[in-house]
Amino acid sequence: MPVVRSSDAVTHEIHGARFISYATPLTGSKELCAWRGEIPAGTKAPAHTVTREEIFHLLVGDLLITLDGHSERIGAGDTVIVNPGVALAVENPTDHTAISWVTTSIGLEAELADGTLITPPWAN
Questions:
Q1: Model-level pTM?
Q2: Which of 49, 62, 120, 123 has its CA 20 to 30 A from that of 86?
């Protein structure tokens, strides 16, 4: 039985946010990836277009989520479904760190507005 202990989770940082990776092929997952995201106060991550569906659940805090130019404020307990091909931007306009749980299928990539392609290790 694959069990990923919190002490075994791998932490990655990019664009001011922290991604703590739990479920990936390296930890025994065959189809899905899952991670905890920590978005510090004042963070405004660059918009990016995702290649796989993401389920973004906010555990703690408030965020401003923008999907294809439409912004929505979300709070703890809210879930955002990000479909493939959608431009996503995440901003934490508050003075507290927000914490999320995100799940996607293995192989997610993200393209920044300038064409930079990111293959995040927490989703592959």
A1: 0.93
A2: 62
